[in-house]
Design a protein that fits this description.
7-stranded antiparallel β-sheet, globular, homodimer
């Protein structure tokens, strides 16, 4: 395919198997067209005209917002064994990396908008041809959460590699060598990866359509106090918002990139005017619910909660719920050995090998169309039992029997999910998120 | 030893190995003296003069407190698939069982005070010769939480055996046959069991000495709104209360019967006046902390939390954190089989056997003087690692690196445990709880 034409040259369309295959030229139009049916085939070059860079809030910025003087904060941190200098350093590293990204983009003639996570909304998504998440995995999840189209590319750059795993981000070396990444994107030396996401349909009473943004609760005092008011106003203005307590099934306006987690939480039911703000509430009660997998029979369960994840999410919380420690594997093999009298090896290398293979089996591909459900700490006793503790599915239905449960999407947004509410959790191709895979 | 003397007859003291061994006669003085050095040896008869019966709050009573009309409540419950009749039934069963207990006690000439859990306090503990918990395991934990002496007997009666496991209660048959239980107690046909409990010393900043009673948050709107005010007043009136933010080590006025759980929670940091009361907050962020076992080296960890349990608690939350499902055991043995080519059995009976033996190894005796620590969902990656996921210890020190962590005692009381605070968790013989073991 020819390259190197002038800006705004026509994009030639070739129809392939009923789908339009577009050729995007370096310096050409920013319109993106799907390449081929395969989710991860090599691509024509990609050069957007307008890029939004969404940045995380560093802990330094968060502490600044609390209006403490520098001496006050330094002293507080010192007492805790942390250091003000340390916070500043991390902040500076992040800021430096963001500037590097922005500079690289602008020197390619790309129109860049830098947006703090608190300012990031649907208008930014509409404006941008592509969105870069500048932070860690949490920022990437936030960025993805507002992208409902499967055609808008999202790219994650890990701006603090020493602190963040960056599973959802480009390989770490591109953080300081971003022009290289841009170059490869332009030349088509990358692959698109359409990550499957989860959709949720809710029905029944006890649904609070006013989601609470859990990240904002952590990171911004001002914004959090507005969160509920905004959510209330949004509800009235948005299309497709849910009525107050409806028994009609409603599709939630979110798509989960990692997982849906359903669990009991304590909520404060009283007028909190009289309290100091530091009310500590904790997820601790067992969660009661009924579950039906792939239209199978309903089963009553009691556990610490239910996780339903995507392939992307199979490396995240779901992984930590299900993985085994070598200590447990060793003890199990010892029992097996003593019961069978077989010569099962118990040396550290073999234990590690079995453990690694077991844990690796928990991870599956981001483009896999299946869900993976896991029951966290199932409670099995005279009253409750469960057949399978985890497995793949195409659809999972959950009926809440909880006092005060939440449905948490990607650890960032929380919906009330109380006694009687029914969630139908599934995947649809149109919910995919378009991301980039660069070779390391 | 002679039996059957008149009331208030002298208790003869025999010194045995430096400890006073008392003989308590049926109908005699209610003073209790330790029997012998062994924690569970057969006992002389036990007949208290004054018994407090502490009752749980049923869900029916809870809903009543919310001032709904019966029709309103019925309709609400029906929409949720629950039933008003069902709630009433459970309530009636509980109430019937409580009346049975009280009647049995009074017909033996025992002075009985029936106390709702919300009214249960140190004055009741001082007044009573023995305390009966009439509810489930949760009620038993509450009752025990206010008994700091190792000499005050606590007996649990399960008033809703169909709903509650009743691990900490008398065998289920005594619920409807309580006079039999009393008879056996009187005749000495029982054993004392001194259950070891955990004590916590806290130091460093970030400590909120105003504990929050989590059960009250669930069960009583009025009481919860008072909880913080009461806790504040208590702090000023109680002996041994902690100063506001001290760096002096302070022994918390609690003893844990099941476990201490340390974990991150989200707390609302803003003025909540503007919110509707339904703010859902969730334990979801990873917990950061450092841990030192038995004065060993400090290790930085990241996980879903840390559980430190007693022998009693080894059957509770700790068990659910650590137990394995047959599905996991089967998959592990399959991997072992394929890697070794040994003829490891994979039939359901063998899988069940290995699983049961593994899970049984997680449980240990209530009178065991050791703690058992477990790291819940440890996060092991480039940044963090951990050596042992669980084990026995005599002492565990934890230093919080959390934003908003709680230390939760027996799932019922919560202390703030934030960045910099250090908890020293251990056991002392004087912290035992005196309970009763009746043969079934």
């Amino acid at each position: 395919m020819p390259v190197g034409m002038a800006r705004r040259s026509a994009v030639s369309l070739v129809r392939l198997g009923g789908r339009a295959v577009g050729q995007l030229l370096c310096g050409g139009s920013a319109r993106l067209l799907r390449t081929s049916a395969a989710n991860t085939s090599p691509s024509p070059g990609f050069k957007p005209e307008k890029v939004a860079v969404v940045t995380k809030t560093t802990r330094y910025e968060f502490e600044q917002q609390r209006d403490k003087s520098e001496e006050e904060l330094t002293q507080q941190l010192a007492l805790k064994g942390s250091s003000y200098t340390g916070l500043q350093e991390r902040h500076n590293i992040h800021t430096y990396n963001v500037e590097h990204i922005v500079k690289s983009l602008r020197s390619e003639g790309i129109d860049v908008r830098v947006v703090k996570r608190g300012e990031y909304d649907e208008e930014v998504v509409r404006w941008a041809d592509a969105i870069i998440s500048a932070g860690g995995d949490g920022t990437m999840l936030l960025v993805a959460s507002k992208v409902l189209s499967k055609n808008k590319p999202v790219v994650g750059v890990n701006t603090d590699p020493e602190r963040s795993e960056g599973h959802l981000c480009l390989p770490v070396r591109y953080t300081r060598a971003f022009p290289e990444a841009l170059e490869k994107l332009c030349r088509g030396e990358f692959r698109w990866l359409w990550r499957q996401r989860i959709r949720v349909q809710l029905e029944g009473t006890g649904i609070n359509p006013r989601p609470v943004d859990l990240h904002e609760q952590q990171l911004s005092l001002v914004q959090h106090s507005q969160a509920h008011r905004i959510a209330t106003m949004d509800r009235q203005h948005k299309t497709g918002t849910l009525p107050e307590s409806s028994s009609e099934p409603s599709l939630l306006p979110i798509r989960s990139l990692n997982e849906i987690f359903i669990g009991e939480s304590l909520s404060s039911r009283v007028k909190l005017k009289s309290f100091k703000p530091h009310v500590n509430l904790l997820l601790h009660r067992a969660s009661y619910y009924e579950i039906s997998v792939d239209d199978g029979p309903w089963e009553k369960q009691k556990s610490s909660g239910l996780s339903i994840c995507t392939g992307t999410g199979s490396k995240a919380w779901s992984y930590n719920i299900n993985k085994l420690a070598e200590q447990a594997v060793e003890e199990l093999l010892m029992i097996g050995k003593s019961l069978t009298r077989l010569d099962i090896p118990l040396n550290p290398e073999f234990i590690a090998k079995v453990t690694d293979e077991y844990n690796a089996s928990l991870v599956f591909g981001p483009d896999d169309r299946r869900l993976f459900y896991s029951i966290r700490e199932p409670i099995v006793n005279r009253v409750f039992s469960s057949s399978r503790q985890r497995g793949f599915a195409n659809k999972v239905c959950v009926r809440s029997r909880c006092w005060n449960a939440c449905m948490v999407v990607d650890g960032g947004t929380s919906y009330k999910f109380n006694d009687g509410a029914i969630a139908t959790i599934s995947m649809s191709e149109e919910d995919q998120l378009r991301t980039v895979v660069l070779e390391n």
